[in-house]
Amino acid sequence: MFGYLTHRILVMIPTLIAISLITFVIIQLPPGDYLTTLVMEMQSRGETIDQGRLAMLRETYGLDRPLAEQYLYWLFGMLRGDFGYSFEYELPVTEVVGDRLWLTAIVSFATILFIWAVSFPIAIYSATHQYSAGDYALTFLGFLGLATPSFLLALVLLYFANVWFGTSIGGLMDPRYVDAPWSLDKVLSVLEHLWIPVIVIGTAGTAAMIRRLRANLLDELHKPYVVTARAKGLSPRRVLWKYPLRMALNPFVSDIGNLLPQIVSGAAIVSVVMSLPTTGPMLLQALRSQDMYLAGSFLMFLAVLTVVGVFLSDLALALLDPRIRLTGGTTR
Amino acid sequence: MSGPLPHTVSAAPWTPEAEERLTPEQERHFMASQWRLMWWKLKRHRLAVLSGAVLLLLYASTLVSEVLAPYALDSRHSHFIHAPPQTVHLFHEGRFVGPFVYGYDYRLDLETLTRVYTPNPAEVQPIRFFCRGDSYAFWGLVEADLHLACPAPGGTLFLLGTDRLGRDLLSRIIYGTRISLTVGLFGIIISFVLGIVIGGVAGYYGGWIDNVIQRLIEIIRSFPELPLWMALSAALPVTWNPLFIYFGITLILGLLDWTGLARAVRSKLLALREEDYCTAARLMGASPSRIIGRHLLPGFTSHLIASATLSVPSMILGETALSFLGLGLRPPITSWGVLLAEAQNINVVALYPWLMLPVVPVIVTVLAFNFLGDGLRDAADPYR
Q1: Is there a contact between A261 and B225 if contact means CB atoms under 8 Å apart?
Q2: A233, burial (CB in 10 Å: exposed 0-12, middle 13-18, buried 19+)
Q3: Nearest to A283 among B219, B227, B348 (CB)
Q4: Which of A24-38, B38-52, B92-106, B296-310 has the lowest mean pLDDT?
């Protein structure tokens, strides 16, 4: 187990470095930098910009140095917890970001819980009642969930939540709590608003999870040991719970690796539509205005969130499944 | 001694092949090519066949979008802004008149400041078929004005309503089909080529090359797709011509999608390269590219096509999402995502719900690709 753990951690480090490199390349891709955008904007407004000030800005932000140096500066800055400077807000990135990272993590985590809670009973029902009307209906619903663009679902749900329950439109909490310190009421307000994004983001993942779990469970249910257990006279419920279900549960944990990037992706667009105070809308804005440190930090954070999430799920899987623990994860 | 002895062996003529002769049915089955077998199996999967037919129809429609659409892509009707869909009727006051719509009466509701359109039962506007309407350049080349259906002279035909500039939504959806469907197709071609080449190299050579490629795939997969797509398409210069942007977007969609395919190719190749026929080819001096392309790949092309079919939907949804965010395709290029970008705020749901209709073809296409892909996968699997 210890060997497996160190191996996984050692693999994670080069992965993270590669991710930071890719992120840096991507945010450098657009021609020009934030200052050229700024100059263009000011020119379109008919203002002129002082060349001296421009040169000074360029020097302060290190935009005139070679790219490799800029990259290393950025990388080591992040290790020290300094994520650079947001040009647009004229504040350090850490201050601009604020609660957003946590809220993103909370939304993602709540979505995973939702996916588990919903797909578990449905998949069991579908597998044990294969080819029944209920199975077909649920399968079709699942497909529909996969096919509907999440942003549209978000809009429609938002509208009906407002009409039926009077939930305020957009945001993760009632407007009056936005700047308030954290209190019980604020938490309740967040919970009241959280369910829409969670359902919307989780729909596609839930559909995929149901299909995986159902297929796995069906495979297990046709194995000889199930026949044996039944022949021994165990009740159907006991047969199901004792063995096949436990075997089929693997994707619940192992699929997080596939689910997390999907959830984070979904959250990005849904939060733009619903103007959630998470990373999505700000990332979009930062990308548009080439606010490179801000955009880079968000991309980096989302990637790290997924890498760490996958790592945790691998650990949990290794704890659950001795086959993985003993062979170093090659059997998956 | 008279005559031959009675013999236990039948004197009737005997041909050894007769015993092994197959019924015509069996023969057909045994002699059929791999693709034919797959087709027979697929035919039994009704939903997959139906989905295939729907997709064929949709793709066929992109060949003649201009003719199918009642209006040209950008014809504006300033008197019919945000007009709701018109319903087609067949009977007027109990009398059969063929398909027609009632003309709209327009009034501005001064209390809510919304436009109100009411069908005027006196104004019967029969729909004309195979008629001359808005002129267009067919495929951007030939000037023409033939349409499948047009409004009555002086009338309107907004079967799915109009948008904020008074453009007919149905026509725009039909034009959007051309773009949305081909985005997925070009994207999948790119990811197919990348997946086969990279996966092929990894699987055939193995060793450290395989290791490096595997790590690369892991890294790419650990990025959440949409933010990466967003970042890459934000990098496309604003000054580019929309057609370039279109190809840029397909490239971006394809660039991130090949990993799954590469993994499938790799694992198959790892297993197949140890087969005797592969060793034989190698000993005869075949080059690696020939062995991969000529001997190994054909063994599981059907499987690859099935998995490619299953990843088209994610590209179509990806394009829709990007265009919705304003980072994807830009007008005048019109795709379903560009149309949905109009439905960006909640007022639309409340006031002009028909602007969300472009989602219907998105859902239908994605579902059809999923069902067809499932069917193909089952059909390509020799053990089912």
Answers
A1: yes
A2: exposed
A3: B227
A4: A24-38
Q: How far apart are CA B159 and CA B174, in angstroms?
A: 12
Per CB-CB distance under 8 Å, the chain A contacts of B235 are 26, 29-30
Read off the pTM: 0.82
A326 confidence band (pLDDT: 50, 70, 90): low
Q: Is A162 exposed, middle or buried (0-12, 13-18, 19+ CB in 10 A)?
A: middle
A27 CB-near residues (< 8 Å, 6+ apart): A292, A295, A296, A299, B231
Closest Cβ–Cβ partner in A156, A266, A288 for B234? A288
Residue of B nearest to A143 (CA): B367
Shared-domain flag, residues A208 and A112: yes
One domain for residues A110 and A245: yes
Nearest residue to A165 (alpha-carbon basis) of A145, A191, A187, A147: A191
The mean of the pLDDT values for chain B is: 83
Are residues A68 and A110 located together in one domain of the fold?
no
Mean pLDDT along residues A175-204: 78
Chain B residues interacting with chain A (CB cutoff of 8 angstroms): 215-216, 218-219, 221-228, 230-232, 234-235, 237, 313, 317, 320-321, 324-325, 327, 340, 343-346, 348-350, 356, 359, 362-363, 366-367, 370-371
In a domain, A266, yes or no: yes
Contacting residues of B for A19, CB less than 8 Å apart: 219, 222-223
Which amino acid is present at B76? R
Which of A11, A155, A256 would you mutate first to test chain B, the one with the most B CBs within 10 A?
A155
* Yes or no: domain B171-379 corresponds to CATH 1.10.3720.10: yes
Q: What is the CATH number of the domain that holds A118?
A: 1.10.3720.10
Q: Which of B348, B347, B350 is nearest to B358 (CA)?
A: B348
Of the candidates B342, B324, B375, B369, the residue with the CA atom closest to the CA atom of residue B82: B342
Q: A325 pLDDT band (50/70/90 cuts)?
A: low
> How many structural domains is chain A composed of?
2
Please report, for chain B, the start and end positions of each structural domain, with discontinuous segments joined by +.
Answer: 66-167, 171-379
pLDDT of residue A33: 67
Judge if A44 and A181 occupy the same domain: no
Domain end call among A38, A67, A82: A82
Q: Tell whether A9 is covered by a domain.
A: no
Contact B222 A310 (CB under 8 A): yes
Domain that holds residue A163: 105-320
Task: Give me the interface pTM, i.e. the ipTM.
Answer: 0.78
Statement to judge: residues A41 and A171 lie in one domain:
no
B317-356 burial string, b = 16+ CB within 10 Å, else e? bbbbbbbbbbbbbbeebbbbbbbbbbbbebebbeebebbb
Q: Are B232 and A26 a contacting pair at CB < 8 A? A: yes
For residue A181, the Cα-to-chain-centroid distance in whole angstroms is: 26
Strand B128-138, strand B89-92: pairing = unpaired
- A42 belongs to a structural domain: yes
Is-contact B186 B254, C-beta < 8 A? yes
User: Looking at the partner chain, which of B225, B232, B343 has a beta carbon nearest the beta carbon of A155?
Assistant: B343
